[in-house]
Amino acid sequence: MSVQEKIKNLRKEIDLNSYYYYVLDNPKIEDYEYDRMFRELEKLEEEHPELVTPDSPTQRVGGISEKFDAVRHKSRLYSLENSNDETELRKWYERVLKEADDPEAKLDLACELKIDGLAVSLTYKDGVFVQGLTRGDGEVGEDITNNLKTIKAIPLKLFEPLNLEVRGEVYMPRSSFEKLNEKQIELGQKTFANPRNAASGTVRQLDPKITASRDLSILIYAGIMEGQISHSQTMKKLSELGFKVNEVTICKGIDCAVQYCQKAEEKRICLDYATDGVVIKVDDIHLQNELGFTARVPKWAAAFKFPPEEVWTTLVGIEISVGRTGAVTPIANLEPVNLAGSVVARASLYNFDEIERLNINIGDRVLVKKAAEIIPKVLKAQRTPSSLSFKVPKICPSCGAALVEVEGEVALYCPNYKGCPAQIKGKLEYFVSKYAMDIEGMGESLIAQLVDRKMVNSYADLYVLKYEDFLKLDLIAEKSAQNLVDAINASKDCRLNKFINALGIRHVGREGADVLAQNYKTIEDLKNATIEDLNLVEGVGQKVAASIYEYFHDTDNLRNLEKVFALGLKPKNDYNIEANAKFRGVSFVLTGTLEHYSREEAQEILKSYGAKTPSSVSKNTNYVIAGANAGSKLDKARALGVQVLSEEEFMKMISDK
Fold this sequence. Notes:
The chain is α+β, with helices and mostly antiparallel strands. The chain has 25 helices and 21 strands.
């Protein structure tokens, strides 16, 4: 193949994948593969400059949608030179020193995480936000001003009446991304492959109401303004003006910058936004101006790219898992592959509708991503010659019962809830867990032995186990056996809300158990409640009320309750039902570190007065209690106008109760 043909083919592939990525928001290849093709084309064009044409991908940044008005940027938005390893990053720095004519210098380098979102420019006149554009092709962008105005992290008015332009990345928090995809699946609609696609697709909706309905944020990474001598100084000033800015760390020389990149790769797992690398910039703006630009990238900046968070591997099989509620879930068994720093061999497929939607067969090549950096999930599939069709199971793999569909739910269910070993194990694992009875040492493998040897069949059976029974199990020594007996006996003195949660009543989780304990003094009171009574409780709907009523009218459930109470289990209710009218239904969210209480202790105090303690801030939140190092919840509370309490104000509020 001639060089000319090779260049032609590379341009065609890059243009096609740019279209999928920038226009359709539906990438077909991974970022590192796109970068590899781009670098190969650049190298060939450098060697054969006579073959460079104005329409080559190297002469532009990306594509532009026709859905919005096209507007020319006042100053061009450039791409960045990518470095995929330490060697490439050091070579970039050597070129900078050579251009600066100071090969021994240790330059101040501004290092910041590279946000994986949608690049935008924001223009302010006299301190008021007047226009927002997408990057587009770097010279012309799309006017998405109205959509950007819905993002609360973008100030509509600055603290000073300045004229300036800033650049930033619009992103969707990982937690919001997962919720959005869950909602898309429930509605039978297309899911997003990653947070960047979700942010891009959301901010480019023709209807701003759709944008406003989804949780987007922004981090500003640059500003064009007069009087600044360094990038870090500019970012500090932008923060003072009211922008949410990307955190900048100044590193002395390339060795320090490399160390920052290594630490950042570990740190990104804990972040609530997607980041695919680190941007390193010469901090001195005067030196930036001296170094200038190539046709495509600034010479004074580079992007260090992390290893891919999405990888292709082979689906070797689909395992069927049965949970404590009887829900049957397919799990992908994968050819082991390194993903975001760990080896992955299994991934979630959610349900059988998802397998059909993705058109997955065993033997396919599948694209896998870590969902919220914890649970891997399959995003898409490609056929191979060895692909075999997957058949949805008809019987439970644990007990052999015929699987059933439940109206209004996606999952298949095993109806044998009293005799299915998998369901019994799942219920017992939940019963002994931290937020239920918290029986220390009672792990998954031990429960499996107890069920498989038919030593227990329900939670009540745990309370008749003796020291000698535990010694019969594998890997249980005398001390461990005694510790288990002691832990089970200690759990008899428990809180009512935790016991209700431990029962595993369908549709009743931790918050539901708290609500019930705030409204019913004892299990006996709850057991005697009618469906009509339960429906009157705020937070208990008709479906949940019916489930609770059904649970306490099942003969086996009543027998287990009588059994454990006879064996000395005494749930106590710490919630003051008679005195909690003041906080009944009031919503408190805690953020940061409190001096006098742990977060759980503060939540329990609030619940004892009838309050709700959700984990996230919304328009329905009444108060946010902010301790030291409060984070994004505090920002959101202020944006929504939610009243913020200090720890001292919180303590005064409960002492006045």
